[in-house]
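Hi support team,

I've been running sequence recovery on a batch of backbones for a student project. Most finish fine, but this one hangs at about 90% for roughly twenty minutes before it completes. I'm not sure whether the input is malformed or the queue is just slow. I've pasted the structure tokens below so you can try to reproduce it. Let me know if you need the job ID as well.

Thanks,
M.K.
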């Protein structure tokens, strides 16, 4: 089976869904094998004098940093690990 053709067919069919339930996320299509290995492990740490804890930045990292990393050509997937709840 041609992976590119299948990917296009799945994307076309998903685009025909009129709406998703309010509490549901839209499906994510990935061609990355579950056994893929990370090539980078960036860490977010606070600098001396910063009173905020690292967990305070989790929304920013997820919404801004992670989404920009995923837009880089050749990046198949990113994952946000080790965050703590506020």
């Amino acid at each position: 089976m041609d992976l590119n053709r299948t990917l296009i067919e799945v994307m076309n069919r998903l685009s025909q869904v009129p709406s998703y339930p309010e509490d549901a996320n839209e499906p994510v299509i990935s061609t990355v094998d579950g056994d893929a290995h990370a090539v980078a492990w960036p860490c977010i740490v606070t600098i001396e004098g910063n009173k905020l804890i690292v967990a305070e930045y989790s929304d920013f990292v997820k919404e801004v940093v992670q989404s920009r990393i995923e837009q880089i050509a050749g990046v198949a997937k990113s994952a946000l690990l080790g965050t703590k709840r506020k």
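--
Follow-up from support: It reproduced on our side and the slowdown came from queue contention, not your input. The chain has a mean pLDDT of 81. No action needed from you.
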